[in-house]
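Support request, please re-run this one:
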Amino acid sequence: MGRDGIGAGEVARRRGAGSGSRPGRGRYALDRDGIGADLAGLAGLVEPTRRALYLYVLDQGSAVSRDEAAAGVGIPRHKAKFHLDKLVGDGLLEVEFARRTGRQGPGAGRPAKLYRRAAREFSVTLPQRSYELAGRLMARGIAHARGAGRPVAETLDDAAREQGRELAAEALRQAGDDPPPAALLAAARSVLDEQGYATRAEPAGLAFANCPFHALVAEHTDLVCGMNLAIVEGMLGGLPPLPVVAVLDPGTGRCCVRLAAAGRAGS
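Re-run finished. Output below.
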């Protein structure tokens, strides 16, 4: 392959992840968003007191004060304050301030700090899965099919390609201004990894070691594989030309799609 092909991108990644590199850089950088952030947030619930406070807050119909949480769990107020604020820092709880006496104006006192369940959702699956994304794409495809009188398979393909174009925009953002093809391909690979495809370099291109929609494949193979292909093709279509093409290549223990070097799609 040429210097701007897959091999060049792999060389660039290995330079960043070689023996002299710092841990947490390159392709295996610490994930402070996505699954990494979810894992970090949920890890705090391993602590029994913190978990008990979180469950107590969830069981209440409205936001609770530190005193209420401490009494509800049976711990001192200062200990409840410490763990409640940790839960806020982890994104599991949110804070609001309100006067509970009903009094307003001077002499009403300071508003109380109250805790309630955060609106943010946490989801961790290993290997990484994206069933919520599959549901959104299918719902979008069905809605468009009903509105336009088109086959669902066609509108699902449209929805998946639009998702791919959104991934292309993220890859362009990561790659920076006027990136060379190798850097752009590396950014595209990074975005695909963030989506759970677990890209892996092979002589013929890039294999996807994981399917984000794995549980759906057994009963809906053609639908899911077509959706994966449309996502990746949509992504490539939203980028400047790269020396790769997306192809269907089903195999055991990996995604049905891979990136093949242009001109070697059948190999």
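The radius of gyration is 24 Å. Confidence is low (pLDDT under 50) at residues 1-25.
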